[in-house]
Amino acid sequence: QDYTWEDHGFSLINRLYPDVGQLLDEKFQVVYNLTYNTIAMHCGVDTSMLRRAIWNYVHCVFGIRYDDYDYGEVNQLLERNLKIYIKTVACYPEKTTKQIYTQFWRHFKHSEKVHINLLLLEARMQAALLYAL
User: Where are the transmembrane segments (predicted)?
Assistant: First the structure.
C-alpha cells in the first residue's frame, strides 16, 4: 500500500508535533517548485518532469515507489552519470567527489547543479521521514 507524505506523513507528523508538518511541507514544496525555467542554454523550459524524475528517483533509491508514476521517465530524463551522482550523494555523501560532480551535466550552470543537490537532499529527508513515521 502506498504511504505518501501528502496522504499520510503530513497528517501524522502534525498530530505528533503541531505545525511541524506544515513547515516541512512548505520546505519540500519550495525546493520542489524552484525553477528558473532554463536548462543549460535553453530558456522558457518546463522543468517539472525533470524535477519529478529526480525526486522519485531518490525515493526509489530508498525503496519508495509509486504506482501512479512511470519510472521509464527516470531513464529517459536522467543520464547515467547524474544517477550515479544522485545515488552517491543520497546514500554515501562522504564518497562524493569533485570528479563525480563534474561528470554530469557538463554544459549546465552551477546553480542548476546546486538545485539538483537541494532536490535530492529534500527528497532524501522526506523519504527518511516516511520511514520514521
Answer: none
Q: Rounded to whole angstroms, how far apart are CA atoms 92 and 76?
A: 24
Say how far apart CA 61 and CA 42 lie, in whole Å.
Answer: 29
pLDDT digits (tens, 9 = 90+) for 105-129: 888 889 999 999 999 999 999 999 9
Residues contacting 5, CB < 8 A, separation 6+: 25, 28, 126, 129, 130
Rounded Cα distance between 70 and 5, Å, is: 19
Q: What predicted TM-score, i.e. pTM, was given to this entire model?
A: 0.92
| CA 79/CA 81 separation, integer angstroms | 6
Q: In degrees, to the nearest 5, what angle opens at C-alpha 67 toward C-alphas 65 and 73? A: 75
Half-sphere exposure of 125 (CA within 13 A, CB side): 14
Which residues is 42 bridged to in the sheet? 39
Cβ atoms 133, 13 nearer than 8 A: yes
Residues, the chain, total? 133
Q: And the C-alpha cell for 71? A: 519510472
